[in-house]
What does this fold into?
Amino acid sequence: MASTAMYKTILTRLAQAVPVLLIFAILVFTLMHLLPGDPAVAIAGTDASREAIDKIREQLGLNRPILVQLLSWLAQIAQGDFGRSIVLNQSVVSAVAERLPVTLSLSMLSLMITLPVGILLGVIAAYWRNTWIDSAVMLIALLGVSLPGFWVGILSVLLFSVHLGWFPPSGYVPIGQGVWPWLASLIQPAVVLALFQIGFLARITRSAMLDVMDQDFIRTARAKGVDEWHTIAKHAFRNTLIPVVTVLGITVSLLIGGAVVIEQVFALPGIGRLIVQGILARDYPLVQGTMLLFGFAFVLINILVDIIYTFVDPRVRYG
Amino acid sequence: MTTPLLEVSDLTVRFRTDTGWMTAVDKVSLQIAPGEALGIVGESGSGKSVTALSILRLHAMATTRLPTGRIMWGGRDLLGLSMRDMRAIRGRDIAMIFQDPMSSLNPVLTIADQIGETLRLHQGLDAAASRRRAIELLDLVRIPDAARRVDEYPHRLSGGMRQRVMIAIAIACRPKLLIADEPTTALDVTIQAQILDLLRDLQAELGMSVILITHDMGVIAEFARRVMVMYAGRVVEAAPVGGLFTAPLHPYTEGLLASIPKLDVDVRRLPSIPGSIPDPTMVIQGCRFGPRCPIIEAGCRQDPMLLPAGLEREVRCPPRIAP
It folds into this structure.
């Protein structure tokens, strides 16, 4: 693989991301400002006088025309300045950086559970297609995608934390205080978060695998005398990975979205909670800045998926 | 005739379909001697490919009832072997190539890996030795620049080249029998001729037997010594190529031969056989070809048998055997 062509592709993709992120920024700004109420009301409190609220509005620059506010925010972002949170009294970047390890730990742990379990279940269901094994796996997958995470989360806390006392019901222990306490605080939310992803991935893998098993080259492998294990593991599986990698970007995006809800249920001080707090307080710079950082993360994830593609499918080459 | 290399007797294969069980192959028997080239000809749905796949037991497991009959190979019945013993024969003693070379190679593995796999599996070669041997095999199937091509992926090769790679995989372990299921159908005409030449040369060079399955009478004429004509899951005629082409016995064979275009005769329309191959789930009393047959008579109503009709010839047609 020509690596200069690869760098060129990555740079092109990053350049292409600029207009996407610009539209995304405008959308986030518009949605936030469409919400009734504004940060001045939230700061001043419900009993505050009209004059007091107007004064805070003026301090925050919220009395300016909306288009001016948008353009000045965009100009700020273009210079790499994400601004300061109104309620937290710290910069948006440092507020996100503080909570990033929690969300990152949760999502990565969840992904590490999702990938092997989801793919394995899909392969098993496809290999024993139309048997009770297939039906059982697909039922698990259906439950995984259908049951809402917050509900499963609450039931899980009732069982594993309240009745059995295996894991703490809520809160986050930084990895600095020991790997086991850290893992114990995360494993429950990570598994609950993974359930949906596993269901999703198992279904994708199953149908991809079924497609591949019907291909002529599988018959060729059998005609060569290759045993069932190598037919599956070597010939079918690598081809199954091609569509699976395609949905990997979507899976990771869903994972981050799901983390927002799960962080609420398990009281984890992550980015999801930060956004929810920000929205409740109408903290414009905080929500807009955080969402934009999310947007940038999705762009990076998709570029990464495209790079992984070239390793999985030799027919894909960039340059 | 010497002891046959492969002897299939009364092979019957039944499939499950949406409308019930259908008999794809009905009591087919065939023999092939060492070094012999046998052609099986018939239109789509005649059961010729299913017959071939059943010899290696490569038919779709989920929808097929275990074939009945006997497939004798080296004193053993292939239908009674364990999957493990069957795998030891596949690719080593009996190899197979398929119709569509575009989809028969694995797109994510290199040519070296796909040829080498057979060698590592059956001959215990290591990676380096199997790669060297793969290059030799690519040379043998006349792929130019073999040392470079061996590390490429299938998508970089043309259809003809890919069929050559399939042939290289098939002959890697010097099999005693090669089953070629419509090997030239998906290729264009000039490439077809090259692939047939290659197969014929390799057959002579390696002394292997070949079963060639095709719907193309021209291919049969060029390649096979003996030919079997199949219709609706049954053998309707078997004969040496020369005899079959000069004096076909079964009306179906006559129809097939009449529909080959001839360069020296000017005709407005090619003759064709009226009607079409019957729905395999439908039960036809007597001769399966009856509804389309120009010479049908009362004797055809009772299921006709395949009977001897001269030297090395058999035909399933009462009017043509009548003394």
About this structure: Chain B has a mean pLDDT of 86. DSSP finds twelve helices and twelve strands in chain B.
